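hey
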């Protein structure tokens, strides 16, 4: 499946907070947009991984995502390893995006900054 814009983020809800409005605007213009979450956010202090998955699906429907995928990498342990890089590369090759969106590498949250470095 070919995606026009693919957002890559560390946790479910990061993309919505970072660029959710942009994705909605692009989807409303007919662009195929998608999200890949690296982790399930299982170490988060609010809610369970199951709740986060349900919320991510609801957000996906509202945004108008063509695809939402989760790599299942360990939360709080994102680092730039060959294994993690290969997982991301496989998804990018699968969806062949024209543009990828990532967060700021200087984000104060360790997983956010590490996730961005991993994606780059």
């Amino acid at each position: 499946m070919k995606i026009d814009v693919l957002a890559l983020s560390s946790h479910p809800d990061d993309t919505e907070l970072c660029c959710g409005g942009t994705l909605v605007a692009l989807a409303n213009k007919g662009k195929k947009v998608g999200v890949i979450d690296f982790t399930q956010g299982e170490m988060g202090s609010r809610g369970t991984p199951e709740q986060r998955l349900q919320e991510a699906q609801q957000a996906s429907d509202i945004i108008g995502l063509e695809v939402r995928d989760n790599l299942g990498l360990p939360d709080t342990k994102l680092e730039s390893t060959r294994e993690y890089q290969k997982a991301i590369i496989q998804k990018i090759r699968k969806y062949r995006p024209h543009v990828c969106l990532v967060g700021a590498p200087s984000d104060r949250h360790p997983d956010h900054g590490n996730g961005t470095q991993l994606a780059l």
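The longest helix spans residues 14-28. The domain at 5-119 is CATH 3.40.50.10320 (Rossmann fold).
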